[in-house]
Structure formats: structure tokens, C-alpha cells
Amino acid sequence: NDRRVTQPVLLRDQDQIDIGPFRLHFRQPQAAQLARTDQTSCEKTIHDVKSAKCWLLVATLESAGSSVIPEELPRLATRWIGECRKLVEETSGSVSKLLGDGFLACWPHREQTGASIARALQGLRQAQSAASPRFRIALHFGQVFLGGGTTLGEEGPLGKEVSFVLRLEKLAAALREPCVISESAASQLKPVLAVQEIGRHAVEGFEGSLLFFRIQSN
To answer: What is the pTM of this model?
Structure first.
């Protein structure tokens, strides 16, 4: 029904399932009455989905040029994610999703969140300076959808801004920048953290040439 599914979901009569170019229609008329009984609960869950301004951060391990022995990488990655998760949670954020070679973290925006993000970035930059393991950071600020729980088959932030920060991490890799910050995030950070422009660049799937920033070196 035009909602992404990442785990088992109960099908009901008239549901539509899209797989690539194919659309399947599920039919189970005898269950229609049961579906109507569950409608109120389902609608309540959908209504729980809300739009909110959030900080989104993607951190991804670098594979190219790594001096880590391949057999050691899983153990090192597990330790790295654990240390990063602790830093994120200490600054009132949460790791919303693991990405195989990295993670997506989210901070709902509040009055003092900019200062918390600055602390998180400084902590992550210190970890980057250790160079073991090497990783990249992409930071963005925008409007996302939160909530819905498992009924929608997805947890954590959703929407085009999530897609943007994931593509932004790819841009960071192409630019060989350890940390790339979007213009919307930089404008929020400027009162608490010095940033500098790194030019305008295109982001795959998004229109125009966009301005990006890095943390200013001391």
C-alpha cells in the first residue's frame, strides 16, 4: 500500500504489494470483517506518525586505504559502533539504524540541540583523528517523519531528508572529506561551532548545486 516494508506484515483483503515493476493485489474477502474491526487501531497508529525537525548524521567506515586486517574488521566495527552509540546517546540522540558499514543517528530538534550536536561532532572528530578505524561523517538538518512503529514496517526517521543525508555521505567519500555538513545544518551550528565552506556540489537525486561545509580547523 505504498509503504516500505522491512519486516513481516499481516496482509488484509485489498492490500497492494509492489515488487519492482509488478503490482500484486491480495484477496481474502472472508477477512474483511476482521479488517474493519482492526481499522481503529490501525488508524491510530498511522495518526501517531508526525513531522518534526531533526538532525541526521550518517557515519560510515572507510574501506579504501584501511590498514586494518580484514579478519579484525568485524570486531573493530562492533567496538566502533558501540563507542559512537555511547557518544550519540550522551548528547541526547539515538542510533536509529545500522547500515552494515555504519549507522544513522537522529536528534529531534530542541532549543539547545545545536550545542549537543557540536559536542557530538567534536567527539567524533577526535575519534577520526585516531585513524583506527577510519570513517566519514555526513550531517544534515531537516524535516522528517517520526513514529508509526512496526505497523508501518519501519522505525526511526523517514522521508526525503533521510535519503539526502545518505547521499551526502556518498558525496563526502567522493570529495575525500572526513566530515561534510549541509547548508541547513551549518546555519544552525554557526553560533556554537566554526564551519567553513567547501563549495557547491550536486547530490545524486536532488536538484541544483548545493553549498556544503566542513568543521573549521583550529
So the answer is: 0.74
- Matching residue, cell 583523528: 129
Q: Provide the total of helices (H) and of strands (E) in the chain, helices listed first.
A: 5, 9
- Counting other chains too, the contacts that 32-41 makes at CB distance below 8 Å and 24 or more residues apart are 38/12
> In this structure, which amino acid lies at residue 54?
C
What is the C-alpha end-to-end distance of the chain, expressed in Å? Answer: 51
Cell of 133: 578505524
Query: At a CB cut-off of 8 Å and minimum separation 6, what does 127 contact?
Result: 80, 83, 84, 87, 135
* Residue 159 contacts residue 145 (beta carbons within 8 Å): yes
Count other Cβ atoms within 10 Å, centred on residue 183.
16
117-162 pLDDT tens trace: 999 999 999 888 876 788 999 999 999 988 755 433 445 788 999 9
Of 130, 187, 126, 156, nearest to 6 (Cα)? 156
Residue with cell 565552506: 197
Angle at 169 between CA 171 and CA 106, to 5 degrees: 150
